[in-house]
Amino acid sequence: MNTNMNTKKSDRHHLPRRDLLWFGFALALPIPWAIAEAWGGLGIAAEWVAIMAGISILGAAFMLSWACELAEREIPQSLALLLLALMGVLPEYAVDLHFAWTAGKDPSYAAYAVANMTGANRLLIGLGWAMVVLLGCRRSKTDALTINPSQQLEIRYLIWATLYSFLIPLSGSINLFDSVVLLALFLSWVREAMRGEESETELDGPALLIDAEFKRTGRRIWSALLFVFAGFAIFISAEPFAESLVSVGRSRAIDEFLLVQWVAPLASEAPEFVIALIFAWKLRGSVGLGALISSKVNQWTLLVGALPIAYAISLGSFSGLPLDARQTQELILTSAQSLFAVILAADFRFGRREALLLAVLFGVQLYFPNAAVRWAFTGIYLVLSAYVLWGSPLTRRRFFLLLRGKTLDDLGSEAPKGPPDAALT
Predict the structure, then answer these.
(1) Beta strands 321-322 and 173-174: pairing type?
(2) Could you tell me if 115 and 324 are in contact, meaning their C-beta atoms sit under 8 angstroms apart?
């Protein structure tokens, strides 16, 4: 034990120079775009805006990962992941609420608001979840990533939000009643997350340096500063990044609708993906996947619930954000994908093959943007969901237990056990 302690002290002695350089590098990444933005863009070409704003988002992503690691030492892990998810989806909120607000003045933007939201949600699962699981399995040389049972809170709320999302298209709009339901789910999730137990976590890199050099108050200050600076960097960078990509795409005669649905969300989701992949690389895939699950709950509740509010305020009416035929199909498809993904996660063991299946299904439907394909893949997701529930009694029991608001402790000996990332250690 003394040898281990001496090793840690020795490591801390040799790490600061590298960690300081890494820390300074990440802090510097958002600065060029912040300066350019402060000077009104300086007439920079769209291609360079995309590069500079993208680099700014990357730097913010690293800062968020360190802030989250520090926050986990001070608050419940569920709440830390919730805060990380909130900060990570900040650019998505900025872009999507802009579309919803503008739709109140120009009805043509209503389709863009729903397109951006559905694209972001499907990217999060089809690309984000799949990449984290695949990287986690590769790093650990295992066939599955074990999800920490403490993340049952996020999975429970994702089940509820997903099932409710199937009801939204029935009214032909995302209306203010939907906002009330979804925001109530979000607030309930926040309340329960704040009741969670604090968790100890091993730090690395700049987070370890801050933890070693500062006491508890100092760590809290640094964590808050990193969250704020990263959030600011994402806020000023995400929309210009997305708009510059759209501008470049238009000059090349690419479908404007598809750019809004896929390219803009890819830019705004980048911080979350980078953070989650960093966790997976550090053999903490459960935390990385947990952050993305939190982001999914966040988008399915707070984001979707905020869209009709922004639209109604801008319009000066209580009308809901209208859904045309295509947006109805996109929303149902997104709900079906979410249902399949949360069922796969309900047994708290996400396999490599399951991640590959999510990625393949997402990739194939991405390249065939027509109504017949959307309905076909909706059916595929629903059939696969039924097949998994029917074929796995354990998954079925855990899924319906969470659906009823129970905890996995009620399963007794069947409840998942072991430390976080047991399959990855």
Answers:
(1) antiparallel
(2) no
CA distance 195 to 425: 28
- Start-to-end CA distance of the chain, whole Å, equals 20
Q: Considering the domain 2-424, what is its CATH architecture?
A: Up-down Bundle (1.20)
**3-class DSSP assignment, residue 349:** strand
Q: How far apart are CA 22 and CA 4, in angstroms?
A: 25
- Distance (Å, whole) CA 380 – CA 327: 19
The DSSP H or E segment spanning 72 is none
Q: How many CB atoms lie within 10 A of CB 311?
A: 29
From residue 22, give the alpha-carbon distance in Å to each of 206, 295, 319. Answer: 7, 26, 49
| Domain segments of the chain as ranges | 2-424
Residue 319 burial (10 A CB sphere; 0-12, 13-18, 19+)? middle
> ∠219-66-297 over CA atoms, to 5°?
110
- Spell out the residues 6+ positions from residue 138 whose beta carbon is closer than 8 angstroms to its own: none
Q: Which two tokens stand for residue 344?
A: 């796969």
CA 98 vs CA 104, 311, 320, 326, 402: distances in Å: 10, 9, 16, 20, 35
* Residue 236: strand, helix, or coil: helix
Q: How many CA atoms lie within 13 A of 98 on its CB side?
A: 15
Rounded distance between C-alpha atoms, residue 334 and residue 69, angstroms: 31
- In this structure, what token pair is assigned to residue 339? 């249902």
Max distance between CA atoms of the chain, in angstroms, equals 69
Q: What pLDDT tens digit does each residue of the chain (425 aa) get? A: 444 444 444 444 445 777 778 788 888 989 988 898 888 766 788 878 888 888 888 888 788 778 777 776 766 666 666 666 666 667 778 788 888 988 888 888 888 889 889 998 999 999 999 999 999 999 888 888 888 887 888 899 999 999 999 999 999 999 999 999 999 999 898 888 777 655 555 566 677 777 767 777 777 888 888 888 888 888 888 778 877 777 777 777 677 777 778 877 877 777 678 878 888 888 888 888 888 888 899 889 999 999 999 999 999 889 899 998 999 999 999 999 999 999 999 989 898 999 999 999 999 988 888 889 999 999 999 999 999 999 889 889 999 999 988 876 665 545 565 434 433 33
